[in-house]
Amino acid sequence: MSKKVLVLGLGNFGSELARRLTLENMEVTGIDIDHHLVDLYKDSITNVVEGDATKDEVMKELEVSLYDFCIVCIGHDVGISLTMVALLKKYEANIIYARAINDIHKQILSLMRVKYIFEPEIESAGRLAMQISSKIIYDAFPISKNYIAVEINIPRSYENLKLGDIKINDEIVVLMLKRYSYVENPFERSELYYKPSHEFTPLHDPETLLHKNDRLVIFGPIEKIRNFVKIYDKEIEE
Length: 238
Fold this sequence. Notes:
By secondary structure, this protein is α/β, with parallel strands linked by helices. The protein has helices at 12-23, 35-40, 56-62, 78-90, 103-111, 120-133, 222-237, and strands at 4-8, 27-32, 47-50, 69-72, 95-99, 116-118, 137-142, 147-153, 173-179, 182-184, 191-193, 198-200, 215-221.
């Protein structure tokens, strides 16, 4: 049985989340006060409802206790967000996720005992900052306050080494090798990367040779990852 999710607020973030959850075969209900948004996403989200989820009678009618997850995605008004959370708690929502707009908002949500608080702008900014500041980082995935996983283009000095011979750092773990196929773009004369032709963990085949266009997914303490990346960024600059 697919899980039921209630998404409150169908702005840029909420609508995208609701659509992606729908694609993951979850039964999603999105609610927003703006009828234009409701009409816009009616064909890409399982269910859409026009209504003001800050109103007691609307929240009661939604029967929020029947959903596995309720996600408050409001990103423009702390008062509206907190009102929705309060009503979700009043009507015994099971698991509540709430978007925090600023530190005070986050603190209040914590005082309301919201266990799952997310800050998409801050998280996205952190990932983008790492990508821009490094020449080898392709993507970054914060795991906690102190740990991160990053996907890196393999350093030049790793080419033709075996996976089993890679010794990065005692605190940094190689999670996966991603091998990509690529072709030349005749219009821009640049490499176009497609989905990985295959991917696997190094434990499966330590004899595998690393190639020029491979990527590694590594995990460890943020500062250790930063120091590691700086070493190989310099390699590219030389």
